[in-house]
């Protein structure tokens, strides 16, 4: 339930309206005027002027500020000939203000989570590359690693796979690893899982080819043995 919906169910003002008093009301004096109307919307400006030791003209000026800032509305009751002042718009402004503040806080938390995730990724890469790079990483090297994450959108696990590939080939350098990553992307390999699947497929294909070769050798060796046993090789 919003503060606007709770209006008049409890005469005690919420702490939130005091916390954001200068965001809602034009001046502190106008808040005092609004507060009297909050207690009794049928009060006359002259009565409030007497309470606050102000002139009626000064109170009317504050009322104009409140209506201009959409914090107060005034309605004339033709049946009684009296003015009635509605203080609910102040609560509507408070609800809007709190909603905007909460939304901004959510966005900030999301940005912080993304930033933390990015920092974690670059930290993983630095920890992995540092011992493998001859002479360690330079600031320029670290900047390039960051670009692989932010500009090229390479997954951190894919970069680590490329590092392992380069280490196996004993060619650990950023240009070589960059070439591996771009070659993988050209061939549709964009995740670390894709690398594993591609390796499994390649190994299965090699195993099949080796099996075919072995079978063919055995077959021909058997045929040669039979030819010799039956004397076909000595046939005239």
TrEMBL record:
Coiled coil: none
Pfam families: DnaB_2 (PF07261)
InterPro entries linked: DnaB/C_C, DnaD, DnaD-like_sf
Superkingdom field: Bacteria
Transmembrane segments: none
Residue ranges of every copy of the DnaB/C C-terminal domain listed in the record: 128-196
Membership in a protein family: Belongs to the DnaB/DnaD family.
Protein name, as recorded: DnaD domain-containing protein
